[in-house]
Structures are given as C-alpha cells and as structure tokens.
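User: Can you fold this complex?
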Amino acid sequence: MSSMNLRLGRTLIYTLLIGFALIYLAPLYVMLVTSLKDIEEIRSGNLIALPENINFSAWVKAWNSACTGSECEGLAPYFWNSVRIVIPAVLISTIIGACNGYVLAQWQFKGSNMLFGALLFGCFIPFQVILLPMAKLLAWLGLANTVVGLVGVHVVYGITFTTLFFRNYYVAIPNELVRAARLDGAGFFAIFWRIFLPMSTPIFVVTVIWQFTQIWNDFLFGVVYSGPGTQPITVALNNLVNTSVGGKEYNVDMAAAIIAALPTLLVYLVAGKYFVRGLTAGAVKG
Amino acid sequence: MGAITIQELTKSYGETQVLKGIDLAINDGEFLILVGPSGCGKSTLMNCIAGLEDITSGELFIGDDNVTNVNPKDRDIAMVFQSYALYPTMTVERNIRFGLEMRKYPKAEIDSTVKDVAKLLQIEHLLDRKPSQLSGGQRQRVAMGRALARSPRVFLFDEPLSNLDAKLRVEMRTEIKKLHKRLGTTIVYVTHDQVEAMTLADRIAVMKDGVVQQFGTPYEIYNDPANRFVADFMGSPAMNFIECTVKDGNVIIESGGQHHEVKVPSTQALKSSGLDTVVLGLRPEMITEPKPHSDSGYISQMSLNVLVTEPTGPDTLAFGEWNGQEVQARLSPEVGVKAETEGKVEIQVDTGKAVLFDPKTGARI
Ligand SMILES: Nc1ncnc2c1ncn2[C@@H]1O[C@H](COP(=O)(O)OP(=O)(O)OP(=O)(O)O)[C@@H](O)[C@H]1O
Ligand SMILES: [Mg+2]
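Assistant: Here's the predicted assembly.
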C-alpha cells in the first residue's frame, strides 16, 4: 500500500467525520445564535447568520420572567425543582443499585438468578404501562404531586438499570477476592465498603451520568406526577414554548431550551472521559 | 492446636457429588500436600476446610474444636489463593493490615506485625505499592505476608506457585519450606507439581474423583503405591506398566527377542491371587546399564532393543519394548549415546522395588 493511498484514505475519513460533526452541531449552532439575536433580527435575517450584536436579554427573560402558562417567573423555579428531584433520585438509585449489584454478583442465594431476571425484565417495561397504577399508588400514599413522590418513581424505575450496571461490573471481580476477605474476618458490609466500593469509581460515573441524564430529561413522569409547585424543567420548557403572549419569541425559546439542556451537557463535559472508560473497563486487574 | 481431622466429608453441588467421603487426620505442624488430576476436588476440599463452602455431610475438627458449622473467620485459618486475591485498591501495607484491622487488633501491634512480616518476606520496599505495580513473585510474597500476619492455626495454600516461572518457583519452594520449619504451623498445600509435592510434604494425599487414593509419606507414595493410579500419577518420568504372564510366582518378560523369568518381591501374594497375567510396575531408574556391586537378589540381565533415546542431561531415557509394550530405561549419558547408535543395549533390571497390579482393577497385589 502506498503512502499516497493512505493519505487519501485519511483525508476521506476526516472529511466524513467533519461532515457528520457539522450536521450534528448545526442545530446547536442555530439555537445558540438565535438565542443571542433580538426578535427583529430573527424575523428579517438569515437563520444561520451570526448575530449583529450580541444580546443576552432572551436568556434573562427565559430564566426569570418568561411565561410558562399562567405564571411568568421564567424557568428558574422549575430548574430548582428539577435539581431537587434529580439529586436525591440519582444518589438513591445509584446507591441501591450498587448494593443490589454487589449481592447479585457475589452472594448467590436461592432464587438470585430469578430475581436478576425479574430485574432485567424491569428494564423493558415501557413508561406508559406503569403510568396509571403508579398514579393510584402515589395518591394512596399521599405523595401525589410531591417532589418525594417523583423522586420515588424515578428511583424505582432507575433501580433496574443501576442494578444491571453494577451487577455486570462486579461479576467480573474474582470471587476469590471475597473469599480472601471473608477469611480476613470481613463481613458482608465491610467487604462492600472496604473492597468493592473503592474499585467502583468508573461504574459509579457511568451510572450517575446515565441516571442524571435520564431523570433530568424525563418529561412523561414529570408531567403526570407533578403538581403546580413541583414541575420539573422539562415540563416548564414545554409550557414556555407553547405559551405565546403576542408573537412567538424564538430567541427566548432557544435560550430556554439551552438552559434546560445545560446541566446534562456539563455532566458529560466533566465526567465524559470516565464514562467511556467505565463502559469499556472490565474488572480491576489484580 | 492446628491438627485437622476430617471425617466422612462429602460435598455435593446439586446432584453431582464432588467429594465422596474424605477421611484425613493431619497432625499439628504437619505439611500436607494434596495432589490429584484437575477437577478431582482439591480446591473444593480446601474451601470446605476454610469454611468457604458448606459441607454436605461429615465433620471437621481443628484441634479439639468441631468447626463443621463455624464461620470461616472464626476458624483461625489463612489461605493463599492461586490468583493471590490481593485487594487491588489497597497498598501492600494495607493488604497485610486488613485482616488484623478487621479483627480489631491494637494499632501498635498491627504496626509491629506488619514490620516483622515485611522483613521476613523481604517486601519492606514494596509496602507503599499497589498490587498492580508488583511482579508475579512479589505478589505471591505479599499474599503470603497477608496470611502470615495473622499467625493462624492453619495455612491453606491453593497452588500458590503455579503462576510463577520455573526458577522463581524453585526459589519460593525453598522459602516456603524454610518458613514452615520456622513457624511450625500446619499447612495444607495443593499442587500439580510432582517435585513440589515430594520435596515439601511430610505427608501426601493423592486424590482422584473426590476420593483419597492414598495418604502417606512421600517415600510410601513413591515406593509403595496403593494402586496403579497413584503409581502412575507420582513420579516423573512415569512408572513403566508392563502386562506379563505369571509362572510359578515369577513374571515373564520378553526383551530383545528372549524370554526372561524374573523374580519379584511379592511372590506369595502373587501366587495366592491366582492371576495368570499381572501388570508389572517398575520405575525407569530400576532399568539401567549393568552396574557393579548392585546385588539386591532381584537383579536380572537382558538386552533391550532401543527405539529412541531422550537425553535429559544427567541421564538419558531409552525407549524399548517388553512384551510388545513400551518400556523406559534410564541410562547414563555415555551408554545412552551408544544405545542410540547401536539400537541395542545390555541392561540390568532390578525388580527389588517392583510393584504388581491386578490388570482389571488396577489394585495393588
Ligand atoms: N460451584 C460449583 N458448582 C458445580 N460444580 C462445581 C462447582 N465448583 C466446582 N465444581 C466441580 O467440582 C469438581 C472439583 O472442582 P475443584 O475446583 O475442587 O477441582 P480441583 O481439584 O481444584 O481442580 P484444579 O486442579 O483444576 O484446580 C469439578 O469437577 C468442578 O467442575
Ligand atoms: Mg483447584
């Protein structure tokens, strides 16, 4: 193979990659520039042109004064609602998943495979199926329209995934490690705490990113199980875009959409490299 | 103290019985080696002793305590695993400390124990490293250190040297032997390596299919095997097994075109068994070039047609045929060269240590 051919191949690959990257990034670019234009410029100008002068007023409005239905307080209150839902839901489901995974992977008991099968099945249950029974249950528990109720729903729904992640990670850890620790006098929790958790960083990152993205981006549970004061940001964004007082304010819509997406973007930027590493990492080498 | 008594121990996984009634009495301070082909249940037996697997039936005593249903951590046993099973996120020092911390030893005592163990095993310079930064031999030492730190009543070693290269293996073997001399703690040790078994053991238990075939000193196992399996399993190069016809309590060997009537030690037993064919077991070192002064009363001279020779250095193995079956002789290198070129060699056969087996059952006669 000549170096000429090699160069040609390279060029082709890079052209394709750059081309696809551009296609992927184009919507983001349009959102960003649109959010920085004023409404006059949007109406008259070109969709992909850069803004003539940068204008943050749409962002300010989206954050604290845009109307989402009858209220006009912007996304800010809902953003904090989401934070209050996501953080406990992610933490609780991840921690429970780690415990479950540890037990299922390293402490075989009668019916443990059955249980794991049932949990796996949980991954495939569509949202829609549980909507009504869950609503009944929440009402019965007195948790309808509350943050606690929403956290509970997300935790329950997320446990199947978090358990699966941790179980598959822990299964690759040699059983001899547990045996050695048992002979060393460590009990069930000591082994989990002192041996398994310290080598779980990659899978924690994977699980947290996954759960964070799922729960932050969730719309269906949010719209069904939340009340006026507890709606998450996705629901508010939908209301904001659908509420038009006067003309459509594309710049505010775009800014709001970016605000709603920002936390997940941030999580990926901060922890993304661990994400890939965690997905590909097998067990920790002895 | 550290004596182990195993009575009628069985272990089943579901329908399949892996250990079929093991009886062993291991003395305090004894070095016991478990050998046997892969899958015969050695590791399972170790795990049962350690309490990591539940016993299906039978009893287990350590010292005078019945530990059949005692939690592994309360049996006062330390184990070195084949994979070493070092805790990957902990430094070497914390690996060694772990067992002591879990048992709530005072900190000062832990510190001094770690120091002593590290010094004994010469791993002081490695204490701050993680297991992944160690070589195989160093990991092995750390695993031993972790076991030693607790000064248990019994050590269990499951093929601890099998991941090391040949040279290191010999070194560590010697060290383990020294260590045992020094500590005097009971050791149960699994290995595949014949030499390891012969050199380390006070006694050897040879297992097959979940049954102990023979339990005895290395000398007994080697020279007085209980059956054909044990005779075949122990010793390298392996024992010769030649099917022979019996005549007046002697066996007939056809070699180099001539028939020889050869005297064997167990004449009486052979006669009373009433067998007309028998399997003669004879180790290759008993078939040599003629040597002066060898006179056990069981010496015969014959010639052997040599098909092929294999020089091993200190001596040469020559392959020929007796009764149409392959036989190995162990010649000096000089005679070996001659045998190879001439295709024929004069040999002396010493049947003083020959053993006889029933051709059908493989039982010793
Ligand atoms: N958890 C288990 N479930 C079912 N069968 C098992 C289990 N563990 C071991 N066995 C079976 O028990 C038998 C003995 O296994 P064991 O590990 O004790 O063999 P071993 O003598 O240590 O072999 P090796 O020399 O290869 O280590 C094997 O046939 C194995 O397939
Ligand atoms: Mg084994």
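Chain B touches chain A at residues 47, 50, 52, 72-73, 77-79, 81-90, 98-99, 102-103, 131-132, 139, 146, 150 (CB under 8 Å). Residues 4-233 of chain B form a domain with the Rossmann fold fold (CATH 3.40.50.300).
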